[in-house]
What we know:
The protein has helices spanning about 1-20, 35-60. By secondary structure, it is mostly helical. The radius of gyration is 26 Å and the shape is elongated.
Amino acid sequence: MRLKLAAAAVALLAGLCVGCAHGGGTAEKAPATPSGYPEMQQKVAAAESALTQADKDAAQDGTDR
């Protein structure tokens, strides 16, 4: 029983090593920037700008707590 369990563990470990080996995944084939990244950057910039403006407005109104 222990021999079968050890053999199964070794087989599983070998499978994981082969599957996770360098060059085995698709990360190297992925594009440098994901699709839609420029649009995402624009949205983040717009949100930061709106937050900055809201902070300025709150400071002028005296409602900044």
